Amino acid sequence: MRRPTVLGALGVMVLLGAGCGIPAASDVRVDGKGGAATEAGVISRGSEPPTRTASGSDNGAFVRNFLSAAAGEPDRAYERVKAFIAPEDKTRLQDKKGSEVALNVVRLREAVYTLNSDSTTTVKIAVQQLGVLRTNGTLAPPVATETEYEFGLRPASFNGGANDDRAGFYVINPPNVLLLSDTALREYYQDETIYFWSSDRSRLVPDQRYRPQAVPVERQVNEVVKWLVGGPSDWLRPGVVGLPDRTELINNATGGNGRWEVNLDMSGDDQNGIDQLITQIAWSLGDLTGQLELKIRNNAQPVVDLGERRDSRVLYPYATGPQRFGVYDGAIHPLDFDGEPSGTVPLTPEANRNVVSASLGLAKDRRILAAMAVTGSGKNRYRLAVGTGADPVAVLSRSGTEYSSISRPVWLRTVDNRPSRGLVVADGQLYRFDEAARMYPVPLNLPSAAVTAVAAALDGQRVALIAGGRLYVAAVNLDGGGVSIGPPRELVTSLTNPTAVDWGREDQLVVAGSVGQPAIYEISVDGALETPLRTDLGAKVTHLTAYPTNRGVRAPSGAYMYEANGVAYRSSPFERIEPGRVRDIAPVPTGVRPSNPSAPFFLY
Amino acid sequence: MTITLVASSLLVGGFAFLIADKITTILLDSARSDVRQRVTSGASYAAKQVSFYGQPQEAQLQETIDGTVNYLAGGDPQQTSGVVVAITANDYPNDIQTRTSPSANVQSLISPELRAAIADGKVASQIRTGRLTGETTKYLVYGSPVPTRFGQIELYYLVPLGRQDVTAADARATVVATGVALVILLGLLAALVTRLVVNPVRVAARTAQRLSAGLLDQRMVVNGEDDLALLAASFNQMATNLQRQILRLEEMSRLQRRFTSDVSHELRTPLTTVRMAADLIFAERDEFDPAVARSAELLQAELDRFEELLTDLLEISRFDAGFAMLDSEPTDLVPVVHRVVDRLAGLAERVGVPIELDLPGTPVIAEVDPRRVERVLRNLVGNAVEHGEARPVLITLGIDETAVAITVRDHGVGLKVGEEKLVFNRFWRADPSRARQTGGTGLGLSISLEDARLHGGWLEAWGAPGQGAQFRLTLPARAGDRLTTSPLRLVPADAALPFGGPRDGGPLAIGPGTGGALAIGPAPAGDGQRTEVRS
Fold first, then answer.
1. Is the residue at A3 inside a domain?
2. Min CA distance, B16 vs chain A (Å)?
3. C-beta atoms surrounding A490 within 10 Å
4. Quick one: which of A221, A369, B113, B315 is 20 to 30 A from B366 by CA?
């Protein structure tokens, strides 16, 4: 009796002790309401391409819409295009996924509509392949060589009852590529400039991207950071550095209401590098204002105000506003225009002689960089003369060799105190020169070696070239004291026979060429976007300079000057540069026809 | 000792429960608050991540959810913490797939109730047991709604409670082991105390019991010089004195009985001689002087009484010596009663006492010694007739399954209070001054009592002054059986209740009596009220 009782009591104790562990299952315990809901409703989106039926029975508009359909977010491009394709032919367009999705951007030259007996319409479009718009927003050089596409149209109500105009058309026999017209690129994409550090990490180099306007504003930061992580455009790679290898954006960059969070998985904890990255992001985000909180592997960096960061880290140090100069009677003279400052020639009169064309630059320490093509020992013999130093420059070095032709030299601007270098084309060959006017040929990987013009961008890391009648852009690498030019990228333009080029804006070139008659176009750095500046020139442009602007410097916007048929002109307002504008010249005796100012250029 | 153990076990068990429960609660609470924090921040992170998307069909939404889940799980799917993060979209099962990191099937662990609570926009948690990545474990499933622009998706953290479970089990095992050890220690202590204190007392109690049962040579062991030793010594002293006294008294009693027996025997021989001489004189009394003849008659009568007395004394001494033997046989008691009545009919007639019989019509068979029963009945009826005061004497015979009973009722002067026991004493008389008419020896009821006891029966008396007396003899129907009840009542039905009893149909008054006692008595006449209760 006693033993069982004791055992029972012990058992009760053990049970009591054992009965209170973590239960195998419990009831649901509610802690309260969840987080506040984000504001509901539709995200603010930009314009999206029209739908299939938007064009009604207008087959021209339908084709235009068809060539716009791929615009927008890439992952649904096939879906949008297939909405235009007749159901039975949808399989002809084979889907690609993810980063494989590429849009063939074409410039529509001509469209021919042939009505067939079976009420279908055959459409032949003649196109110019501009490039391939990739998911990372870059417009890569074209890979397709087709200049013509052919497909059919049939009314959507072909098989059903009445022929209703509102039913629109279907595309039959579609081409097995995604086509995007240049107008659609202009209309449904926003061209954005993002920046990468030059290979010596001294300057930010612009890189052009296209952001679908369908992407909501909230995702802009996300897209930009993804682009930065993805690295620069191919042609730019020799001159810039991307983010460290294996850098990844951790999930999405989020934010709103003036505060943005970017979380990167990035190797290296170099604080200077991170600071540069913040500057890079700040400039790449365009005009976006607000606070940026950058996290490197979840380690938060100090929060930075984007606007303040852009204000404190200017893109390029501009010394002054542009001053216009021109060559008059073999000497450089300031050009005087109302409302614009005009400087003095930073050369001694002794040095300022025999000038054919010139390029003056201001280095970081306010040294004057002067490079001039000067006449040589005989007719049509030219040398390069280079002089640097404090204003005024008195001593010039001259190149040892004389050339039968020599273009206007350009300086590759740097922001440090390294010896300045420049580029010049002489006798169809691209040369680099140093401050002692020594010239070294620069090898170019081009089918035609006959280079006729060169222009350097403000950042000094990109050049535009004209060689063999084609327009190229290329990255410049200044590492190791030399100058090497990366693989040039040809730009497909409407202009033929380009004759002169210069950088008008960060990602825009001012190109002189011909569209039937001589014309000046502003062309984006990838060639896709063209804006005619002047199409009524009477003569071939032989000389063109522009004052490059960027987001840091606004005015004067798009200023350029050119020389055609021995006469110099200026833009905005467009006018001929009269001899009266040339300062510091001796009065022309009456009766003598005054010579014209030539080879105008900007000092900045 | 058992009570000590049970009580201490319960107490220790209670404490063990409290402590283990507290530890578990603390562990769970800390886990809960930790996970809740993670869920809250995770939900706000996820909400930011999906805030880009206005429709659940957007292709990058699924990627974002994948990335978010991986990020919230720590980014590395190979991590071994066991925490599983999951995002589900209850409302959009076709557009958004459930994602977990590390990949596991969490559906079984997310109960419909939890799902419903979270679908209702609540942050909620539940403990569930299941198997996700490794072995079956308890999981704390914490869920939170993640608001998006198109509706709501759900974020779950499934945190294994293995560590907490092990800790709780450890704590519990420690507590239980401590408790068991404590209880065992208490048990040992209690056993020790019992050995030291309770056992001697128990031995003493047993010794005292044996002593009281008559084993007078029982003694306690005296150990040491403590209180218990003192007790044992005193006890032994007491037992020795008691034993000596009892032996002395026994010896005296034995001598007394022996004396009585011897005297009786020694008197018998001369009495026989005297008797023979007296018989001779009595036979020749007609030839003597009338005065001498009267003396011879007196001598004859007193010799008869003397002989009777000697017989009774010898009988008593036989009982005292323990030589009385019961000669039981099945006997019908009805003829026995008739025989007794017949033999006393002469005396009854002489004193004018009618004898009434109330006997069953059937034989009343019992296993008794008929000679002794008859002697008892003769004695009782004789006494009744003697004290009958010329009123009837009633003899009643009763039987039931286990016993037979005979009552003898007279209506004489009765017995005073307390005399019911005294009547059985040897040579006791109710009124010593009263003349003896029947010449009883004064030993009759004593012998009758011994006879009844020899049968294992009862002989009891009842009497009340002025109401006569009743004697009841109860005998077991089978020899050797124990008696429990009697078939007949001891107190006769016509006896008045004490204090006069209630008058016929009259009310009783209950009220304060003398000395604070409660007095019950007849209610005052003419009161008119049958019952009145006063407080």
1. no
2. 5
3. 19
4. B315
